[in-house]
Amino acid sequence: MSAVMITRKATRKWEKLPGKNTFCCDGRVMMARQKGVFYLTLFLIVGTCSLFFAFECPYLAVHLSPAIPVFAVLLFVFVIAMLLRTSFSDPGVLPRALPEEANFIEMEIEAANGNVMAGQRPPPRIRNVQINNQIVKLKYCYTCKIFRPPRASHCSICDNCVDRFDHHCPWVGNCVGKRNYRYFYLFTLSLSLLTIYIFAFNIVHVVLRSVDSGFVNTLKETPGTVLEVLVCFFTIWSVVGLTGFHTYLISLNQTTNEDIKGSWSGKNRVQNPYSHKNIFKNCCEVLCGPTFPSVLDRRGVMLEDSSSPTPSDVSAASTHKGSNPVSQTTKSSAPLIPNEHTPDEAKPSIGAGTQKSTSSPKEEKPPSPTSPNAVAPAVIKESTH
Amino acid sequence: MATEFHNLQELRHSASLANKVFIQRDYTDGTVCKFQTKFPSELDSRIERTLFEDTVKTLNNYYAEAEKIGGQSYLEGCLACLTVYLIFLCIETRYEKVLKKISWYIQEQNEKVYAPRGLLITDPIERGMRVIEISVYEDHGSSGSSSGSSTTSSSGR
Q: Family assignment (chain B) (predicted)?
């Protein structure tokens, strides 16, 4: 133990993550920046269900069955849980490459390209991989400085590469990717059921009541019904359609992104290499596959030291839940922020581009000339023996 | 031959980081997590090929076990769905359990195999499961320029 005094300000890693996400509850919740439409979704669901419980349920519980509101409550709870789970979880964001990794990849690319004549454009940065006898092209992401894994894509709204990127959904206020796709699907499915359920029982309620008191009087007694029917009517068309579309995608093991781009549409005899050619297997993989962990250590602690760090027994092989010796805060200001549609040929090599890095030097590494902005918070990790 | 380091602590205090080698992912089996077992040329003089390949193959096996789609993953998925995924507040997922095993394995390998040879493996989860980062250390006593940045491409396809 050293007697060096260290004044620490504990910062959690989510505060330094690049990308345009917002974080709540000290890093537990991760969403996109624009959340307005998400609040609208929440309002519509909660509002419509509240009207249903207020106006229809008392009548139906008495005249038909008390199971009706009970089932509605269960369905409502499930819908909200799936919505919150989709919206608040990490969709499968791939952290950006640290400077050493980025340099390593750059050197590999330069070695592979050989000598490019002055004035000539360098070839596009693409790696070819063979997956199940299909050639799949891996594109280089200039923002994240990595070759994107297969099925990953860069979301320009959140400014992150997301694994198995499906789409960015403003209704849930988050990207839909590998980690939250099944919750998104269950959300649309359960919302479809809930909407159809409410719509159906609204009709039943109006019919039953009209028999007793007449149609106009019924509407006067339960004005909420009109509002609910309107909301449900428009919701059914969109949400049920969406559920059907995603059921189709799941059965083929495709993402929305691939479907829109026509990656596996069959032109040039390109087939989907990820499909098991069996609907049941595809569904099982997507819906019942393993739950992937987040590779962003959002709640790990970074410490800022005002004096030299205490030499501690740092082990690089601790669990990812502990704090990380190297921060993941590589900020690069590329000349363009590419989205998934920006063609690679339009971007010159950014090896010479301005690169601001706030990554901290590792504890065991003496100040080296390779990190010019090396005055950065050092990260200390307690030993985990 | 590289200087002998006796443990991780000695590695930290008496060595300086010379280079880093990145073992890339192997996507030939699809999107499952698997790393290339191709031996990088930068490690030629530092570690035996078989030891390196054993480490990577064991890690690949662990990841395959974590991502296996079978009876246990279905059960876990269905049970979780029925409890509205609240069950994950109480129990660990299978993947998390395997990640702990991996972490323990890497620590053990570092202590027994890699640190004595002046190398250190970083857990892939800390690099977004993209690469296995192997840090190459040089003893302060040596010239420190023997294994400088190599420009030769080490991972081909």
A: Belongs to the ERF4 family.
Range ranked top by mean pLDDT from A190-199, A281-290, A342-351, A355-364: A190-199
To test the contact with chain A by mutation, choose from B95, B106, B122, B130 the residue with the greatest count of A C-beta atoms within 10 A, namely B130
- Three-state secondary structure of B71-115: HHHHHHHHHHHHCCCHHHHCCCCHHHHHHHHHHHHHHHHHHHHHH
Coil, strand, or helix at residue A279? helix
| Residues of chain B with C-beta less than 8 angstroms from the C-beta of A112 | 153
Average pLDDT over residues B116-138: 91
Would B91 be classed as within a structural domain?
yes
pLDDT tens readout for residues A303-326 = 655 444 444 333 333 344 444 443
**Contact A351/B at CB under 8 A:** no
Share of chain A above pLDDT 70, in %: 74
CB–CB of A295 and B85 under 8 A?
no
Residues in A closer than 8 angstroms to B120, CB to CB, are 316
pTM summary value: 0.78
CB atoms within 10 A of CB A306: 9
Neighbour tally for A216: CB within 10 Å: 9
* Token reading at A88: 């608040």
Q: How many domains does chain B have?
A: 1
Domain of B68, in residue numbers:
15-36+46-138
B127 and A132 in contact by Cβ < 8 A? no
Domain boundaries, chain A: 4-97+166-301, 99-114+121-155
| B25:A146 CB<8 A | no
Q: Is there a domain that residue B150 lies in?
A: no
Q: Report A:229-268 residues touching B (Cβ under 8 A).
A: none
B143 in any annotated domain? no
A296 to A162, A222, A299, A322, B50: CA distances (angstroms): 11, 49, 9, 12, 32
